[in-house]
Amino acid sequence: MKTGVRQSGGLRFFVDFCECPVSGRKLFYICRMIIPLRTPKLLKRLMPSCVWDIPTEKNEIYLTFDDGPIPCETEFVLDELDRVGAKATFFWVGDNVRKHPQVARKVVERGHSVGNHTFHHVVGWGMSVEKYLEEVRLCDEIIRDVTGLETRLFRPPHGRISRGQLKVLKTMKTVVMWDVLTVDYDARLSRKLCLSRSSRLTRPGSLVVFHDSVKAKKNLRGVLPEFLDYFALQDFGFQLLDM
Ligand SMILES: [Zn+2]
């Protein structure tokens, strides 16, 4: 499949292209643009054992960074957080901790929280409970080996976790989802829209997801500094989750 992407003026839709396998003709179809969004209340009610936001009256935001640690990207995030005196929570992929232990240690040394995001960033749906738990165990193990830390925090990659997996994991972990998804990983999304919608959707107690990954580089670098400044100017604090 050959894919080229065009964004429309309204930014809510994009055109995707593929080739017809029979005629070889170029076909296009219109897809809805994935834009930053807040988790619907209904979904939060359907999975009440997960943490979706932190109830508070205070001007506090809970930033989370998924899929690291990655050289350069994680270090960029750490410097930006330090710039405004923010703390955050990093959900790590175990294999990245194995590859980049020195970056992982920097996150801990600079006073942030860390959580488990499975060893290979696996999608829970369609995977046996045993296999999924092994992924979680391996990630815990490497975090312990590299940093000496034990964490109760767990975030399922893509938020895709089966009922059976959740039933077991909630007895061992605090399963952390999110309130605001910035969709920073989608390079088709303009920096402007990513920033404006993410800022508009965030409120006191929001758990906001960014990614310290190579895939999210464009929007992470373009959006995070302004996002931090926007809320810091309004006297918001950025808090971490207790491990
Ligand atoms: Zn992830």
Short overview:
The protein has 243 residues and is α/β, with parallel strands linked by helices.
Question: What features would you describe in this structure?
Answer:
This protein is α/β, with parallel strands linked by helices. It folds into two domains: 1-33; 35-238, Glycoside hydrolase/deacetylase (TIM Barrel, Alpha-Beta Barrel), CATH 3.20.20.370. The protein contains eight helices and twelve strands. β8 (153-154), α6 and β9 (174-175) form a beta-alpha-beta unit. α2 packs parallel to α8. The model is unreliable at 1-11 (pLDDT under 50). Bound molecules: zinc ion. Pfam families: Polysacc_deac_1 (PF01522). Keywords: Hydrolase, Metal-binding. One of its GO terms (molecular function) is metal ion binding.
Please name the defining characteristics of this protein.
243 residues; alpha/beta; TIM Barrel; 2 domains; three-stranded antiparallel β-sheet; 12 strands; 37% helix; 19% strand; disordered N terminus; binds zinc ion
